[in-house]
Design goal:
With 202 residues, the chain is of the alpha+beta class. It contains four helices and ten strands; from the N terminus they run αβββββββββαβαα. The protein has a ten-stranded antiparallel β-sheet.
């Protein structure tokens, strides 16, 4: 009963921890979320973060789990192309909750998860005295299953995000590679040609 009252109290106070219980399996192993991922869905209570040209829009494509942190490998769009960056989210005393390095009160929560199919990551941070929430649906395949998308939509609604602020990233377009400097393409072709010639001579 006391735990129930505490949970209700935290919810009323707007504490994000009250909304994040993590995977339902108490024996869930965080290392299972390691590996390659495709960003399938994105949502936020700040619509500007969903724009493709928004610098703050980060596209997660790989996760590495260490004993103390999650290494998030992302791409950020710059001038229409995607630049790779890496961010570290350190583990906290609370299970399935992480704190981004060099970012005060920028928290990442591991939400619902089926590591063979999808995971949901929720980010909370304060910006100009307002709570900013961003939720990502990661899929093991380029297109998430209908069940995963439906669960993602329900999860976002439960976190106060309107359906108009939920997008299917697969439909809005992927992330084009960073353009190579002039001459780089020619150099690559020359190297390939030389390697081919050597193999033929051998």
């Amino acid at each position: 009963m006391n735990l129930l009252l505490l949970a209700v109290g935290l919810t009323l106070l707007g504490c994000p921890q009250a909304l994040h219980w993590g995977p339902q399996d108490p024996n869930f192993n965080e290392t299972l979320v390691s590996g390659e991922w495709f960003l399938a869905g994105l949502a936020s209570n700040q619509p500007k973060l969903l724009r493709e040209d928004e610098d703050a829009r980060l596209l997660i494509h790989r996760i590495q789990v260490t004993p103390r942190a999650l290494q998030l490998h992302l791409r950020r769009k710059v001038n229409g192309a995607c630049v790779p960056i890496t961010m570290t989210a350190n583990k906290t005393k609370r299970k399935f909750q992480y704190l981004l390095e060099n970012a005060a009160q920028n928290r990442v929560f591991l939400g619902k998860a089926d590591p063979k199919s999808y995971i949901i990551l929720c980010n909370h941070r304060e910006e100009r005295k307002k709570e900013v929430v961003a939720v990502s649906l990661l899929s093991r395949t380029p297109e998430a299953s209908p069940d995963a998308l439906l669960m993602f939509t329900d999860y976002c609604r439960n976190h106060g995000i309107h359906t108009t602020n939920i997008i299917n990233v697969t439909r809005t377009g992927g992330c084009p590679p960073l353009p190579q400097p002039r001459g780089a393409e020619g150099t690559a072709r020359t190297s390939t040609r030389l390697a081919t010639d050597r193999s033929l001579r051998a």
